[in-house]
Amino acid sequence: MMIRPCSESDVNDILHVINDAAHIYRDAIPDDCWHEPYMSMNQLRAELDARVAFHGYCRAGRPVGVMGLQNVGDVSLIRHAYVLQGEQRKGIGSQLLRHLLLLADRPVLMGTWRAASWAIHFYQKHGFRLVDDQTKNRLLSEYWSIPPRQIETSVVLADDTWWQAHHPPLRLSAGR
Ligand SMILES: CC(C)(COP(=O)(O)OP(=O)(O)OC[C@H]1O[C@@H](n2cnc3c(N)ncnc32)[C@H](O)[C@@H]1OP(=O)(O)O)[C@@H](O)C(=O)NCCC(=O)NCCS
């Protein structure tokens, strides 16, 4: 199995994967949202303390792609999905996402930069659908701990389970 839960000994590799892959944001997201490195070790530690469970797609035992699952209240969040630049578009992110979706035991939400059209397509290919702006502001405030500017410049996508719970399909009655 090439996908496994990450442990303390993977922390440096996780940070490397995130900061390598995040370079694509530099010319895409608003200038005031970009910083280098994209994630510091302290920020990663804070995410681990907040129980973001990272899984790694590993080569020779070391993660080349990472993705986190975080249970918050009645939903699971997909957090920090990153694949090393040289390993992207080979199916690694898809395998990680499918793996985490099997582990999730509640509706799944994910948030990303509005400008990250490639990431939005990636999640749409896996059946996620964008929520409207008002709902995404509410969800990002309720389930994430991110600054107001990031809320403003992000989008949220939700899986089928979330949509069915929040927007059940209309039943056409054969009514009298
Ligand atoms: C998004 C990401 C995690 C997907 O992982 P991956 O291993 O590259 O994805 P897969 O190979 O399983 O799927 C590839 C699909 O994702 C989308 N995609 C990923 N990177 C893309 C890019 N640079 N340009 C356009 N589409 C891209 C496309 O839909 C692509 O399908 P295609 O190759 O048939 O066009 C990875 O590309 C990545 O780390 N990107 C940079 C960081 C990022 O945006 N992370 C998302 C944070 S929420």
Describe the protein in words.
The chain has about 180 residues and is of the alpha+beta class. The protein has one domain: Aminopeptidase. It has helices at about 10-20, 40-50, 90-105, 115-125, 135-145, 150, 160-165; strands spanning about 5, 55-60, 60-70, 75-85, 110-115, 130, 155-160. It has a seven-stranded mixed beta sheet with strand order 1-2-3-4-5-7-6, with helices on both faces. β3 (about 60-70) and β4 (about 75-85) form a beta hairpin. The protein starts with a strand and ends in a 10-residue tail after the last helix. The mean pLDDT is about 95. Coenzyme A binds near residues 22 and 118.
SSE layout and pairing:
Blueprint: E1 3-5, H1 11-21, H2 41-49, E2 53-59, E3 62-72, E4 75-83, H3 92-103, E5 108-113, H4 117-125, E6 129-130, H5 133-143, H6 148-152, E7 154-158, H7 160-166
Parallel strand pairs: 4-5
Antiparallel strand pairs: 1-2, 2-3, 3-4, 5-7, 6-7
Bound molecules: coenzyme A (COA).
Quick overview of this protein structure:
This protein has seven helices and seven strands, in the order E-H-H-E-E-E-H-E-H-E-H-H-E-H.
- Tertiary shape: globular
Structure summary, number of beta strands? 7
Query: How helical, in percent, are the residues?
Result: 25-40%
Fraction of residues in β-strands: 15-25%
Distance linking N and C termini: 57 Å
Q: Superfamily at the CATH H level?
A: Gcn5-related N-acetyltransferase (GNAT)
Query: What series of H and E elements makes up the topology?
Result: EHHEEEHEHEHHEH
- Total helices: the number is 7
Biggest beta-sheet profile: 7 strands, mixed
Q: Roughly what is the average pLDDT, rounded to an integer? A: 95
- CATH class bucket: Alpha Beta
CATH architecture designation: 3-Layer(aba) Sandwich
